[in-house]
């Protein structure tokens, strides 16, 4: 098999198509969500809606997730908090602070930024992979999670896990030759790009929407956030 | 006179027995003969036993085998691979191929010219039919019946097919002859092809590179001269001896890659410290070649050592493999603003459509909320 040609396809036309599908799909999702409209205020607003949104963003995104004891998730299910936290931390560090990934953004956006040294990125990537495995095992053995998990949940896990594991073995030269792992990495990334708008991984944008909605609800009711 | 053995002709040129044995040892090393398979394929004992060493076996082969006629054709090329082989002065390998093996025809090196040399080629092809090695340099254009490369009124395809018919084996030297090289770069106006895409009924060895490492070309020819067989090849028809590992695997800057220390421009402190050139577009991790081990100019240096990222010149279609100074991870095609805008517009249109349908569905049931 000519992996050179596979790699060219995965880095070239397939990535191009996947990127456009990703853009079109995410815009579609955004428009349909915005098109759902806002509910009307049927009672007088007690506090400030905008203030609620601001506080929700500041505290909900920047502070709360990093202080375990204020999070109900941590109190009720520390495994999810730790596994999910490790995964998201590792993922963001690798995507934005890994040298190879920064070069992708640089080539697409025209500007780059400083990156973390490879060993640090490596440890974070490993933490992300371990986090993902913890979450999968938890999903399989937890009686309630098992009930509410369908193919979409397992596929979402798989499509995120594949780029991470292929990328990790690629930088460490584990298993097959570099260009084979690189091809598999690119193919899995392309598949993920197409999958994101179709799945709940789109929460990377809608998370901020739900934060805003919750914030304005808090503000409306005068809840002290 | 190919009837003379290689050893005899060397002796005639004043090569002493001691130097001859040294050469044999150097050849064994250059061909990576720690593996006995190519030896056993020639009926030599699999376990040569005490006292036998590879250079003895090679010396014996050189003493008994007659010289090997070579016909060297050039098509869409720059003669850079010929240039490289004439300058390879490491273990007299290039010397061996150039002086001792009989290059019967070489467009750049032959003293004769015109019809005279064409006649010499025809004579050689008849005299050594089925025995000679055909070395091809340069890609073969097939568009418009091959009119983009015509020598002496005949197309490259025609000349190649004729010469290949009587060849014992074909060696495609340089990226052009192997995989199309520069002439094949997009948009490939001449529809340039590598030799192995045209000649399918003969063994074709690819020695890609820009130029090919002369020791790799000469070593492969020497392998055939000595053992009468071709070395073990990878799936892109490259000898495993020279193309078994990547440039990255043997790179002297590899520790800096592992440590995450990169040069960010050609004149920053990182570049001065000799850090890894990955961020400057090095293609070493996916490039299979012996640059980092054999190196160039008698092992003096190679591009990465001299401070330039690897361009990946021994891989197919390396000209279209992304910007030379852009990270290897960068995508090959960048969607233009128009394409991204169009994709966004399609998404938006679909979204508005879906919203309108939703609302139309809702209204008859509940009416105004």
Structure description:
The complex is a heterodimer of chains A (225) and B (369). Chain A is an all-alpha fold and 225 residues long. Helices cover 78% and strands 0% of the residues of chain A. The radius of gyration of chain A is 20 Å and the shape is globular. The N and C termini of chain A lie far apart (59 Å). The model of chain A has no long low-confidence stretch (mean pLDDT 86). Chain B folds into 2 domains: 6-243, Rossmann fold (3-Layer(aba) Sandwich), CATH 3.40.50.700; 245-334, Cytochrome-c3 hydrogenase, C-terminal domain (Cytochrome-c3 Hydrogenase, Chain A, domain 2), CATH 4.10.480. The radius of gyration of chain B is 27 Å and the shape is globular. Mean pLDDT of chain B is 82; it is low at 35-43. The chains are: A mainly alpha (225), B alpha/beta (369). At the A-B interface, helix 1, helix 2, helix 6, helix 7 and helix 10 of A face helix 13 and helix 16 of B.
List its salient traits:
heterodimer; A: 225 residues; mainly alpha; 11 helices; globular; B: 369 residues; alpha/beta; Rossmann fold; Cytochrome-c3 Hydrogenase, Chain A, domain 2; 2 domains; two-stranded antiparallel ribbon; 16 helices
